[in-house]
Structure formats: C-alpha cells, structure tokens
Specification:
With 419 residues, the chain is α+β, with helices and mostly antiparallel strands. The chain has a domain of 252 residues: GHMP Kinase, N-terminal domain (Ribosomal Protein S5, domain 2). 35% of the residues lie in helices and 24% in strands. Strands 1, 2, 3, 4, 5 and 6 form a six-stranded mixed sheet that branches. Keywords: Cytoplasm, Exosome, Nucleus, RNA-binding, rRNA processing. Belongs to the RNase PH family. It is found in: Cytoplasm; Nucleus, Nucleolus.
C-alpha cells in the first residue's frame, strides 16, 4: 500500500488541457504540472544535414514548482532530464525532419519545444514527455510556397496552418526500485523518489517499440526485471496514447464548431472564481400598480422619534425607535468609569483643601509655576513671563549711581590741589 492509496502498478490520473493557440498545452500527472509551448522559425540548416529541419527541446525548472529548485542554474537533475527528453523525442525520430525543409541548404523550419515545470510532485520525466508529444501533435506551422528564389510565408488568415508530420508518439514510463530491486513501483511520487534505491525509465510507443532505456541509481537489474517493466510500459503507453488522441480530437472538434476553448474554459465549475451569473429579463410592465399593491399590503412604518434618545453619556440614537445596545457599558467598563469618577472627586477635594489652608501659597504657584492644561490629548504649556521692576526702584538706582560719581570727582580734585 502506497501513501496516496495506489497499488504498485497504478498510474496517476493524466489530464490534458489546451491553450487558445496551437502548440500550447498543460499536462497534469497527479499534482505534477508541466506547461509546453511550441514555436517555429526559418533558419539555415546544419551543414552536415542540409535537407533536414531542426528540433530543439528545452525544459526549465523554477522555484515556483518546488522550493529546492534554483532559478538560472544548470543542476544535475535539469541536465539529466533534458538529455532524457532529447533521446525520447529527437533521437527516436518521432518527427519527420525532412518535411521541415523549405529550400535545401538555405532555409528550413526550426521547431522549438519549451517546457516549464509548474508544480513538482514527482515523476517529472513522464509528465514532460507527455506534454512534449502532445504539444508537437497539436502545433500548426505556417504554410509556405516557393517560387524561384522567393519564399512566401502565409498568415493563418490567408492559408490554414499545416500540422507537423509525426511518425509515432514515444512516451516515458518510470519505475522506482526499493531494497535492491525487491519492490517495484510505477509512477513514483516526490516522497517516493526521495527514498528509492534506483530508477528505470523506458520510452516506448503504442507499437511496443522501445525508443530509450535509462537506468540510474546504485542497483543492478536482472533481465527478467527489465522484461517485466517493458510489459507494464506497453500497457501504460497504450492507455496514455488513446487518451492523447481523444483529447486532440475533442479540441479539434470544438475549434471547428466555434465553441469555447482554452485554459480558462477547462477550469472546473466547482471553483468560486469560475461561477457565472446568467442575465435574466426584467418585466417593466405595470410597475406603478405593482408598487402600490406592495405598499398597501406592507406593514405600517414604526414610530419615528424626532429628538435623539440618550441611552448613556456619549451615545445617542436618531431615527426609527429601534432599541440599540451600543451605549450599554460592560461591567469592567462600568468599574473603570466609577474609579475614574472617584479619583476626579478626590483630586478636586484636595485642591479645595489647599486653597482654604494657605491662600498665599496658591497665589505664588499661580504666578510662578507654569499652568498646564490637560483637557486635550496634546498637552499645552503656558509659561508666564516675570513681572517688570517698578519705576521707583529704577529711579532710586540712577540717583545712587549719580551721587557716587560726584563723590569720586570731588576726591580727585582735592588730590590735584594738594599736589
């Protein structure tokens, strides 16, 4: 028994959805999702093969799929997956590259297959191989005509795009081995890949022709184990190939009939963001009569209070006479309010007591100390300037200074006469 409830030879559900353009698809293998996009351009051919087109395959891993994946870094896992997909699709000659030739030695079609891993839940190679072959089967290249040395590329409006010539559909099936090959699992998940001892990947088409075999890990497989895995692969490949053909036929049928297609239409309707409200017709005949009937049958309006109702200090109610509990204080709030009132009474009593005992002290504090107003949240400080000196004292000081200066002048004259 496996963690997700599958048996040893069970394959996870495969779901295929196509985009609005040709050559774009998403393949879901359980929770593993791969996005594939095919594009093409006219390029010069290779020197050693002047009459053959070029097929370029690229797989990208990003942290969006799993936290352990690093962006822009050629990890060992990424190099290994790209090599396996190239051997599965390009080396197996699944596409007729000679049909991609436009002018021998001058211009050929370069088909580029880009795949991105959207979510990683194990068995990336199987999901990528399915997504790659589905995108290639779904892709349509522009039609081309050659007149002398002139090459004309037609738009989809001028001529219908041309599908690629595909001989067969190779699909990879992975097997995980545990305890040196004692236990065998088909389509391992991400948790099972962490603890497996070895991995065997077999690429096969529905004609039971083996395209590639890749074994990794520290295990040694016996011939009977490889034959057993190849028989299981033949069954799984036949089922997946039939599923791919049905998906392609359904998409082509919808496009011809003019129905809705694309990723947005493939979202299940059970999701909240996919709900739609159909427009309903509104009958506007006899609107006034119906409104009068509704008003007459309705209950009379409740009593309206013109003046506000004060439930508790700081709250009021205006409008219809519906009871409101906003102003009701809880027990804890009532206790706090009572304590604040008691503290305020005590401080007021102390102030009165100070005034009766020593009025002179109160006067001094009023004149010398600053007055602090604490009514608002931001406290304002008012500082009183010191009083000016009376004019009498200033006159007295001037007279004293004048008398002292006269005395000093008379003393100096007496000394000069004596000399």
């Amino acid at each position: 028994q496996r963690l997700d409830g599958r048996q040893c030879y069970d394959y996870r559900n495969v779901r295929i959805s196509f985009g609005t353009e040709y050559g774009c698809c998403i393949v879901e293998l359980g929770e593993t999702r791969v996005l594939a996009q095919v594009s093409c351009e006219l390029v010069p051919p290779k020197l050693n093969r002047p009459t053959e087109g070029i097929l370029f395959v690229n797989l990208e891993l990003s942290p969006m799929a799993a936290p352990g994946l690093e962006p822009g870094r050629q990890s060992d896992l990424l190099v290994k997956l790209n090599r396996q997909i190239e051997r599965c699709l390009r080396n197996s000659r699944c596409i007729d590259t000679e049909s991609l030739c436009v002018v021998a030695g001058e211009k050929v079609w370069q088909i580029r297959l880009d795949m991105h891993l959207l979510n990683h839940d194990g068995n990336i190679i199987d999901a990528a191989s399915i997504a790659g072959i589905v995108a290639l089967c779904h892709f349509r290249r522009p039609d081309v005509s050659v007149q002398g040395e002139e090459v004309t590329v037609y738009t989809p409006e001028e001529r219908d795009p041309v599908p690629l010539s595909i001989h067969h559909m190779p699909i990879c099936v992975s097997f995980a081995f545990f305890q040196q090959g004692t236990y065998l699992l088909v389509d391992p998940s991400e948790r099972e890949e962490r603890v497996m001892d070895g991995l065997l990947v077999i690429a096969m088409n529905k004609h039971q022709e083996i395209c590639t075999i890749d074994s990794s890990g520290g295990i040694v497989l016996v011939k009977d184990q490889v034959l057993r895995c190849s028989k299981i692969t033949a069954v799984k490949v036949a089922e997946i190939t039939e599923l791919i053909q049905k998906a392609l036929e359904n998409d082509q049928k919808v496009r011809k009939e003019g129905g809705k297609f694309g990723f947005a239409e493939s979202i299940p309707n059970q999701k909240i963001t996919a709900f739609k409200m159909e427009s309903a017709a509104v009958d506007t005949n006899n609107v006034e009569e119906q409104a009068e009937e509704i008003i007459t049958k309705a209950d009379p309006p409740s009593e309206v209070f013109a003046n506000p109702i004060l439930h508790t200090p700081g709250t009021a109610q205006i409008g219809e006479g519906i009871e409101n509990s906003w102003g009701d204080l809880e027990e804890s709030e009532r206790e706090e309010a009572a304590e604040e009132e008691g503290e305020g009474d005590a401080t007021a009593f102390e102030c009165q007591k100070m005034e009766t005992e020593d009025p002179s002290m109160m006067k001094e504090t009023k004149t010398d100390e600053p007055i602090v107003l604490s009514d608002s949240e931001e406290e304002e400080v008012v500082i009183l300037e010191p009083q000016e000196l009376p004019k009498k004292t200033r006159a007295q000081t001037t007279l004293k200074q004048g008398s002292t200066s006269k005395k000093a002048f008379t003393k100096r004259r007496k000394k000069k006469r004596a000399a």
